[in-house]
Amino acid sequence: MTLAVLRCNNLVFKYASSGFELRIPEFSMQAGDTVFLEGDSGSGKSTLLNLIAGVLLPQSGHVSLMGQNLSTLSASQCDSLRVDHIGFLFQQFNLLSYLSVLDNVTLPCKFSKRRKQNALMQAGTVQQSAERLLNALGMGKYLNQSVSTLSVGQQQRVAAARALIGQPDLIIADEPTSALDAGHQAQFVQLLLAQAAEQNTAVLLVSHDPGLAQHCAKRQHMGQWQA
Ligand SMILES: Nc1ncnc2c1ncn2[C@@H]1O[C@H](COP(=O)(O)OP(=O)(O)OP(=O)(O)O)[C@@H](O)[C@H]1O
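Structure for ABC transporter ATP-binding protein, as requested:
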């Protein structure tokens, strides 16, 4: 049996201050899976992403990433596991404005030996691996440009390349298209998923736009867990 990238079992998490409780009996993702996660505002999507990233720990049940139960790890072990295996893509990009496009994309390889080794195996150098991704995402002309001079759509492609570099097992994409205009949203998601598929990276795509669900193989509604 192949190892699941992500496995959540009998998860129960409650915020003491607000009393909001999230219960997830079972949720798992295999290598290369694409899941569209949807739910009303306040239904707990961000809370679930924080549990998957190990930023929050459940009161009971467990989250395993590549077979490792996050609740059994120290904070630094959890940080290493996260950067080794997860690429993050957020609504606000979180790019470093004083760095070039190329330097933003190669950043995860500075924090993760595993991502660096994977990048070296995919291309001769980490820079070449970043260039390959940026070319595939239509950003090959902007390698040495400062990210602060790019359009919103271009910055989101740089953020996508950064999430993809070094072949993480999972990309968590949290509302990655909300800053893009309608015409570019589907195109961006298709590009992201095509590159992820090429390297067998699973993608958990969180969005309020149900139109994007068609690009993912599976669809999960937060409400299905609360029923
Ligand atoms: N740090 C916190 N402390 C206490 N309660 C919180 C905290 N963060 C979120 N909540 C509550 O938990 C519930 C779920 O919030 P969460 O942000 O996970 O929902 P969401 O589905 O991501 O919402 P949105 O789509 O609006 O981003 C909400 O009722 C929220 O008020």
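Strands lie at 6-14, 21-29, 34-38, 60-65, 68-69, 86-90, 170-174, 202-206, 218-221.
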